[in-house]
Every structure is written in C-alpha cells, then in structure tokens.
Amino acid sequence: MNIKFKQLLSAAIMVTLPLAASANVVNFDTGAPDIRQTTIDYGVFSVSGGYSDSSTNLYNTSSFTRGDDVVTAGVEVIQDTNGQNPAYGGLGVYSGLSGDTDNWQASMISGGGDEVIFFDFDFSVIMDMLWFNGDHTADTDMEVSLFSSVDGGSTYSLIAGLGNIAVTDSMAVGFESQYFAVAAVAYSDDSGYISQMSYSTVPEPGTLALLGLGLAGLGFSRRKNT
Description:
With about 230 residues, the protein is of the alpha+beta class. The protein has helices at about 5-20, 205-225; strands at about 20-25, 35, 40, 45-50, 65, 70, 75-80, 90-95, 105, 115-135, 140-150, 155-165, 170-185, 190-200. Strands 1, 3, 4, 5, 6, 9, 10, 11, 12, 13 and 14 form an eleven-stranded antiparallel sheet that branches. The chain has a three-stranded antiparallel sheet with strand order 2-7-8, with no helix packed on it.
C-alpha cells in the first residue's frame, strides 16, 4: 500500500466515523427557573405529557393509542429543578388530576391511569439511555415502560419495561425511532423524574451511499496504481 493511498484511506475513515453516529446527552435536571408548558422544545426534539385513562394501565399494555387511550389535552410537561443543587429533578407531568404534583407519577390517585412523557424528534434517532431521579431525592423505586410509534399520532408499541428503576440506574434503550413514550407504570403512587436522556443521530441513506461510493473509488484507484 503506497503512502498516498494510505493517506486517502485514513481521511475517508476519519470522515466516516463521525457520520456513523453522533451521541448527545441532554440534562433535564438543570437550569432556572423551572419550565412548565404544554410542549417544551429542545431543538431537534420536543417533549409533552399525557396520562392513560382509568381503564388503561400501561403496566401490562403492549400498545396504546395517543389521544384515545392516553389523554393529552390540558396536560403540561415540566422541567423541574426546584432551585436545589443538586436538584434531583427533571422532566415531570402535571395532569391536573386531584392529588397530582409536578413530578411523573404512576397510578394516579383520582380517576386516571399512568402518566406518560412523549419525546417527538424531528428525525429518526437511536435513544441510547434514560436516567431517573426520585421526587427531589436521590431515592426512587419506579417501574417504567418504554414505547415507540411509527408516526407519533397513533399506535405506540411496547419496546421494553416492567423493570424497577433505582436512581443509580439507567435504562438502556438502543432502539431507533422518531417518536418515543415513557410511562411510569408502578401500581402504587410512586413518582419521580426523567433526569437525563441520551440519543444518537444516524446518517441518512444517501450519505451512506456516497461514503460507499467514495470508498469504492479509493479501492479502484488503488487497483489501478498497483
């Protein structure tokens, strides 16, 4: 292998690696003042909230329909740090039901089911990891179900769930989608926050095709020079 070809190949690899996947970590347990809105925009994705109706417990549900099985009207999502350092806060939901607070609750006290946090991305990503906090403490004992949707407006299907989440733990996802829903599903009145989320961007098919053509061209050039 001559020096010129080695240089070209090294350059191609250096270009390819960052395009293959770009990891991003978003910390929701920071900033002041707190944010409380119907939808919070984080640039390439937005977050909103909802809660399942009293007949739909998301603990043992393989799929649900947004807008039918899950109520979103009048529900606010909250980035709550409570001015503490460390805050042990993050993303929560305010559904307006009796006894509701600004955290993210399972099995609502009065007339509702489980609270849900929706992540709607502008494009398909790989959600890598989720981190959790307690209700402004370093302690929580929640159970979480994670769903994804093809279009974000209809059926959400179960990816994984039914696991206990401790504050020192994170939930590994590793699933590609554009629309995700994370539900607090414990049967008791457990509560907490999503403190961080990690996602990776993926290259467009056209980008991969161009990279493939470029590498093929390098190989062809190498064969001509040998």
